[in-house]
């Protein structure tokens, strides 16, 4: 019998959705981001999806100077693949958003495959007191946000980053984004194997349930045949259940405090590593093996950790 392919765990360490008030575990200083990323890698994450934050107040940052300190530490302490977000702001231009990836030339970066309403304003009602001034308006203001990723934006991003051989984590928030990706793949903008991240449960995107996942996967099979690898991230309480389902369907998984602050329904996770350890334990109990960073490099055809600029 053929061996089951290994499962890649990505850990998205801090993101730009949650705010410091929502969990004491959410890392935002350079040291906290580095320490939690390294611990997540030690727990079994072979890819680290990284955003930066202002180290004083935890506000999301896309300034390369807020990436440098933790990138250097992560590189010294782990062999994990670094994936830098190009979606760290719902209001900045595409050139501003890709600046960190252009600067540091990581092995991977995110690539958001369509424009959508992207809102988490519903979280605001849960908190009466906020740790920092910016948080309440930021969370409430997402009700009016359009996350802009036009065809032109995506083309500009991929053409700017192409000379650096960065593999994209294509963020697919709904089924139409698969068709966007297909059209752009056919134009020669991306290199196979492409890596799809099915993003489920964001307000503005597809809901997080198994039927939707099967539909997305079937559509991807139809469009991309054997030219793609895939993973699932589900927001909030669906995170670990849908990750386990994905792993049983032959997909890879993404966890991390970027997309869910919880370890189980109603209980905050104490760290990113705790979520990685939990999903790893379950998927191994169900018969899968977790990919090492070098195995992830092979599965996704990455350029190698020695060809980055940090
Ligand atoms: N937090 C995800 C829902 C990006 O960084 O480019 C979206 C995301 C986008 O990870
Ligand atoms: Zn992200």
Description of the structure:
With 310 residues, the chain is of the alpha/beta class. Helices cover 36% and strands 17% of the residues. It has 10 helices and 14 strands. It has helices spanning 30-43, 68-77, 94-104, 134-141, 151-161, 175-186, 210-224, 239-248, 272-285, 293-300, and strands at residues 9-12, 47-50, 52-53, 60-61, 81-84, 108-112, 116-117, 146-147, 167-172, 194-200, 228-234, 252-255, 262-264, 267-268. The strands form 4 sheets. Strands 1-2-5-6-9-10-11-12 form an 8-stranded parallel barrel, surrounded by 7 helices. A two-stranded antiparallel sheet has the order 3-4. The chain has a two-stranded antiparallel sheet with strand order 7-8. Strand 1 (9-12), helix 1 and strand 2 (47-50) form a beta-alpha-beta unit. Helix 8 runs parallel beside helix 9 (272-285). It binds (5S)-5-amino-3-OXO-hexanoic acid (KMH) and zinc ion (ZN). Zinc ion binds at residues 12, 15, 49, 51, 85, 87, 110, 258.
Summarize, please.
This protein has 310 residues and is an alpha/beta fold. It has helices spanning 30-43, 68-77, 94-104, 134-141, 151-161, 175-186, 210-224, 239-248, 272-285, 293-300; strands at 9-12, 47-50, 52-53, 60-61, 81-84, 108-112, 116-117, 146-147, 167-172, 194-200, 228-234, 252-255, 262-264, 267-268.
Task: Give the SSE layout.
Elements: E1 9-12, H1 30-43, E2 47-50, E3 52-53, E4 60-61, H2 68-77, E5 81-84, H3 94-104, E6 108-112, E7 116-117, H4 134-141, E8 146-147, H5 151-161, E9 167-172, H6 175-186, E10 194-200, H7 210-224, E11 228-234, H8 239-248, E12 252-255, E13 262-264, E14 267-268, H9 272-285, H10 293-300
Parallel strand pairs: 1-2, 1-12, 2-5, 5-6, 6-9, 9-10, 10-11, 11-12
Antiparallel strand pairs: 3-4, 7-8, 13-14
Helix pairs in contact: 1-2, 1-9, 3-5, 6-7, 8-9
This protein binds (5S)-5-amino-3-OXO-hexanoic acid and zinc ion.
